[in-house]
Each structure stands twice: as C-alpha cells, then as structure tokens.
Description:
By secondary structure, this protein is an alpha+beta fold. It has a single domain, classed as 3-Layer(aba) Sandwich (Aminopeptidase). It has 6 helices and 8 strands. It has an 8-stranded mixed sheet.
Amino acid sequence: MLRGERMVLREFRREDVEARFAEQGNDWALHAVADDTAWRPRTLEQALARYDRAGSSGEPDPAHVWFTICRAGDPELAWVGDSGLWGLNEHQGTAHIGIALSRSARGEGLSTEVLRLLGFYAFRIRHLHRLSLETLGSNVPMQRAALAAGFVHEGTDRESAYVLGACVDELRFGLLASEWREHVPAAT
C-alpha cells in the first residue's frame, strides 16, 4: 500500500470492479475519452468474469500494475478511482501512467498526489528510468496535474485520438527518475 497525505493506493480487488461498474459501467461518453477501444454495453457479470479470468492464472501481467485509489481518511479504503502503470518494460526501465478518478473525486487536485505516489512506486520501488503520460488536449486538469508533479510536456500528436466522432489532439508528457528526485517532496 502506498500512502500519501490525502490518498492511498492499494491493490485492486474484486469489489472494486463492482464499485467502478456502479459509477462508470455503461458510461459511453466516459469510455470515449478514457479508452482507445470502441464502447460496447456490458453487464456487471461480464465485468466480474473478465476480472476473474485475468486473475485465474495466478500470475500477474508483468506489463501492467494497477492500484485502487482511496481517500486516506476512509477506514474502509473504498474505491474512488484506478491508477497504475501500463506498457511497463523492465529492460528499458519505462512505463506509461494511467489515472481514472470517480466523479466524486474530481476537481480536488488529487491527481497530482496520485502521480507523485506512482512516481515513488516507479522510481524507488521498481527502479524505472522514465514515465510517460498521455492525455487529451481537452483534459486540462490532467495536464495541470502532470506539470505540478514534475512531468514535462514533450509534444502534441495532432488529431491522433478519436473521441465521439472527432479527431482530437493528444498531449505527451514525460518524467525521468532524475527529474522526479528533484521534484519530489523531501518526506517521500
């Protein structure tokens, strides 16, 4: 478990699938901005079955590490979002970061703390060299959070994402381990 001042990142559990589905289950508009696959309606049972299949091998996927985002003051550590590393390449020392907050947790500046906790995990625990973050040009809160966490805007892929019938820009941010060490609060 990774603890910040206001947030906790813990392991992803089966009950988190239910909490996520209750809020986001068939939200096609959210899917359009948070996923690069076409939306399809699905049931809670299908979401749980997918979770069960993924865990049935007993071996975690080495290219993905997902956490549940919780509020630090919540004794039950209930789900308020997901975060993690994807495209993790141990040989190259690289990974991408993903964050999805529940509606109730948005607008509070929590993403910056989650990015810092993921930086701690990536650079101190996994000894990675570089993190990448991609977000839509319209996602100004994530852009601000990335910059506040020390990420550098590295470029814009013009009209590279298809969202609700339109091609939109995708912004790329990067953070090196050396930059993270300079930017991280002293207590971490």
